[in-house]
Design goal:
Blueprint lengths: L5 E4 L1 H4 L8 E9 L13 E5 L11 E4 L3 E2 L5 E4 L31 H9 L12 E7 L3 E2 L10 E2 L2 H11 L3 E8 L3 H14 L2 E5 L10 H7 L3 E5 L3 E2 L5 E4 L5 E5 L3 H19 L7 E6 L10 E11 L2 E6 L16 E5 L11 E6 L12
C-alpha cells in the first residue's frame, strides 16, 4: 500500500522527470484508503492515491504530492523522480510467514495489543491474573475517617498494599483486617487462603506477645520456608506455602518495612506468576551519603534519575521504618551491604525501580 499521499505511477514513465523537464501523466483514478481501484494502471497514466490505499495493478512507485503540479486537473506534471519502489509498502515486508509475532511470556502492553489487532487476532491466550488476599493485623489499627483514641493509628498498610497490587496488574480478591484475637485471626487467614492465589499479611509477625500470625498460619497448614532476614528494615518477614502451594508472605507492620518487603520479595514472585521477569537491579551514583548498618543489609526508599548520561540516586530524607511519608515521591529502593561506615556521595549503589514508578531525566521531588 501507499506510504504517503501522492500519485501511483510506473517508474519507467517518470525516471527522467525533473523540475526543468517534467513528465505529464493522465490521471486515471483516485484511490482512497480502504478501497481498491478496479482499473490497472496503463503506460503514460497515474492514479491519485492516499496513504494506506492499495497500490493499483501495474504501478510500482508513488510520487509525493509536493513533487508534482497540476493537482485536481485531468493530468499532472511529475517534477521529480524518486527511486523505483519509493513510498510503497510491500505486502509481507514486516513479518514473514511462520515468523513469531509475540513470544510466550511477553506482557500484553498497548504495543503488543496493537500487534495482535494489526494481524487480525481479536483474542490471545494469556496467563491467569493472580488473585491476592490482603490481611492486616493489630488492635491499634483503625480505618481512615474514623475517630482515633490515644492508642490508635490509621491502617495505611491495607490501602497501600491494595494499591501496590493493582498497580502491577493484580486482582485483589480479599482485603480484611483482624484484631489481636487468635480465633478471629485464624478465621480471617483461612478465608484469605481460600479466596486468593497469593496471600499477603502485614503486622503480627515479630516475636511479641500478640504476634500470632506465624502460629496461626502453621495451624492452617502453611509450611514455613523462611522467617527473619538480616536486613533493615523488614527483619521479621515470613514466607511459606499453603497445602495447595499458594505463596504466603507475612510482612512487618511498620509501613515502610511492609512497602520495602513487598517490592523486594513479593513483586518478583508475583511477576513470576504472570510470566514476567523480576524488576532489574540498576547501578547509580549516590548524590549524598547512604547510612549503612554494621550488621544488616540496608534497604532505603529514594529517588533515581538520569542526568548527564549517568544514573544518580539519593535516599529519602526520612529513613525510619514507621515514617511512611518517606515513600511519597520515592521511585526506587536503594540497597547496601553491611558496613561500618556510610557509603560516600559519589559511590555506586544498587537500586530497584519501584514497579509502579518511572525513571525521570532529572532529579525531582
Amino acid at each position: 500500500n501507499a506510504a504517503m499521499d501522492g500519485f501511483a505511477v510506473k517508474f519507467d514513465d517518470i525516471r527522467n522527470a525533473a523540475a526543468e523537464s517534467p513528465v505529464t501523466l493522465r490521471v486515471m483514478d483516485r484511490v482512497k484508503a480502504g478501497h481498491a481501484s478496479a482499473l490497472a494502471l496503463i503506460q503514460g497514466s497515474c492514479m491519485e492515491i492516499m496513504t494506506g490505499a492499495p497500490i493499483p495493478d501495474g504501478a510500482d512507485t508513488v510520487v509525493a504530492f509536493e513533487d508534482t503540479s497540476g493537482f485536481g486537473t485531468p493530468s499532472v506534471e511529475i517534477r521529480k523522480a524518486p527511486k523505483k519502489g519509493a513510498n510503497v509498502r510491500k505486502r509481507g515486508e514486516e513479518v514473514s510467514e511462520g515468523e513469531i509475532l509475540l513470544e510466550k511470556g511477553m506482557t500484553i502492553s498497548p504495543s503488543e495489543t496493537a500487534v495482535l489487532a494489526s494481524f487480525g487476532y481479536p483474542t490471545a491466550p494469556v496467563m491467569k491474573k493472580p488473585r491476592v488476599s490482603i490481611v492486616t493485623v493489630g488492635d491499634e489499627l483503625k480505618q481512615p475517617g474514623t475517630a482515633l483514641s490515644g492508642a490508635d493509628i490509621y491502617n495505611c498498610n491495607s490501602f497501600m498494599l491494595e494499591a501496590a497490587c493493582r498497580s502491577i496488574g493484580l486482582e485483589v480478591a480479599m482485603q480484611a483486617h483482624a484484631p489481636d484475637d487468635r480465633a478471629f485471626l485464624r478465621k480471617t487467614l483461612s478465608m484469605a487462603l481460600t479466596a486468593g492465589d497469593f496471600v499477603i499479611t502485614a503486622g503480627g509477625i515479630s516475636t511479641g506477645e500478640y504476634d500470632f500470625v506465624q502460629e496461626e498460619l502453621s495451624s492452617l497448614g502453611v509450611e514455613k520456608k523462611f522467617w527473619s532476614v538480616s536486613q533493615k528494615p523488614g527483619k521479621p518477614i515470613f514466607f511459606g506455602t499453603s497445602a495447595e502451594k499458594k505463596p504466603v508472605f507475612s510482612l512487618p507492620g511498620n509501613p515502610v518495612s511492609a512497602l520495602v518487603c513487598f517490592a523486594e520479595y513479593c513483586v518478583p514472585v508475583l511477576f513470576a506468576l504472570q510470566g514476567k521477569p523480576a524488576p532489574a537491579k540498576l547501578r547509580a551514583v549516590l548524590s549524598a551519603p547512604f547510612p549503612c548498618d554494621r550488621k544488616r543489609h540496608r534497604f532505603l526508599l529514594g529517588r533515581i534519575w538520569a542526568e548527564d548520561e549517568q544514573l544518580h540516586c539519593r535516599v529519602s530524607q526520612k529513613t525510619e521504618s514507621h515514617m511512611i511519608t518517606s515513600s511519597s515521591g520515592a521511585n526506587c529502593i536503594i540497597e547496601a551491604a553491611p558496613a561500618s561506615e556510610p557509603l560516600r556521595a559519589g559511590s555506586p549503589a544498587t537500586c530497584t525501580l519501584l514497579p509502579w514508578a518511572c525513571l525521570q531525566n532529572r532529579q525531582e521531588g
